[in-house]
Amino acid sequence: MTSYVLQFQRSLSAKVHEYLVLCKHKVVMLLALTAVVGQGLAPYVGRSLLEQMLTIVGIALLASSAAVINHIVDSDIDKKMKRTDSRPVATGSVTNRQAFVFSMTLLVIGFCMLVAYANWLTAWLTLVALVGYAFIYTLVLKRRTPQNIVIGGFAGAMPPLLGWVSETGSMSAEPWLLVMIIFTWTPPHFWALAIDRKKDYENAKVPMLPVTHGIEFTKTMVLLYSVLLTLVCVLPFLIGMSGNFYLAVSVLLNGVFMYRAWELKFVAKEKSAIKLFIYSIWQLMILFIALFIDKWLI
Ligand code: HEM
Ligand SMILES: CC(C)=CCC/C(C)=C/CC/C(C)=C/COP(=O)(O)OP(=O)(O)O
User: Fold this and answer.
1) What pLDDT does residue 270 have?
2) I need a labelling partner for 83 at 20 to 30 A (CA). Which of 53, 198, 200, 253 fits?
3) How much is the CA Rg of the chain, to the nearest whole Å?
4) Which fold has domain 19-168?
5) What is stated as this protein's family in its record (predicted)?
6) How far apart are CA 278 and CA 260, in angstroms?
7) What tens digit of pLDDT does each residue of 82-102 get?
8) Average pLDDT over residues 31-40
């Protein structure tokens, strides 16, 4: 009897893990953090903490829904790449139909939550981000052009704007600066990984930059984008949106980013690219936390 219970518990937790993988839960958590910061930096309009938290859950559900659709649409590519060949839809352990029902459930619940706890503008803009990632990037751009992630990166950059609009109900210049930060961060974030995994993309015939233009050219682009990112990150300070604390953290983080990108280009070791990719994730997380701390705790 106990062994049946144990077996049931194990297969249940394996299923839960599969569905979390489908949602790209770690990416979604970082997206959600950037949305929280968008909310936190917006002018205070008296919304309750509960409404704010439920709004973030709504955004996270739509982002998860987009990730599940990405697994369905990309399963042909995922099957051909080492990094992705054990994903649940690629292996068939979750069927297309199950994944589709799951993604639509997340979509409907997330959209309704945004209408109920934020506003229609936030709900529609989040849906635009979903379509941008799940269809325009995944179905069209990823398979056609090495600029895929530059254009597609726009969807992943939207959460701070979504957080801000959920507070104010309208768009203004400041949240677009936050969008620009993630937008310029995305190419070096992804190309560092793509350099490391070039063979995967070659095998799957996906026209990522290292495949179409070579590793050296991609490294140069990573370095140039790291300089651009450093400049863009200063803008919140220059317009008076953030103060000295944010500026110091930003300069430090981006200094390390540029150094690592320079190292990747000129003194590359075997693991330089993947280390830069991992660093990029920590960098964005700390940068956004610094924006928040700068506004509320300093
Ligand atoms: C079009 C834009 C983007 C592309 C092409 C991209 C690409 C990737 C890829 C291929 C991975 C590896 C995933 C894996 O091995 O499962 C990854 C990981 C990750 N990305 Fe991005 N990314 C993009 C935008 C973003 C954005 C906007 C964020 C957050 C704000 C983000 C956060 C992360 C995180 C946290 C991970 C680590 C996930 C893990 O360890 O499972 N990415 N990204
Ligand atoms: C509603 C909303 C805010 C949507 C955000 C969309 C979202 C989840 C963006 C994250 C981007 C991402 C993980 C790209 C991975 O590229 P890939 O799919 O080519 O990577 P893979 O090879 O790992 O599948």
Assistant:
1) 84
2) 253
3) 20
4) Tetracycline Repressor; domain 2 (1.10.357)
5) Belongs to the UbiA prenyltransferase family. Protoheme IX farnesyltransferase subfamily.
6) 11
7) 999 999 999 999 999 999 999
8) 98
| Residues 65 and 22: beta-carbon distance below 8 Å | no
**Per-residue pLDDT tens digits for 242-273:** 999 999 999 999 999 999 999 999 997 889 99
The ligand 2 site (C-beta within 6 Å) comprises 24, 27, 31, 62-63, 66-67, 70, 74, 84, 126, 129-130, 133, 142, 155-156, 158-159
CA distance 88 to 99: 9
The type of residue at 22 is L
Q: Which two tokens stand for residue 292?
A: 């928040």
pLDDT tens-place string over residues 2-22: 788 989 899 999 999 999 999
Buried b (16+ CB within 10 A) or exposed e, 184-221: bbbbbbbbbbbbbbbebbeebebbbbbbeeebeebbeb
How far apart CA 54 and CA 154 sit, in angstroms, is 24
Distance CA 110, CA 106 (A): 6
Q: Which residues of 253-282 are buried (b: 16+ CB within 10 A; e: fewer)?
A: bbeebbebbeebbeeeeeebbebbbebbee
This model of the complex carries an ipTM of 0.96
Domain boundaries, the chain: 19-168, 172-298
Per-residue pLDDT band at 153 (split at 50, 70, 90): very high
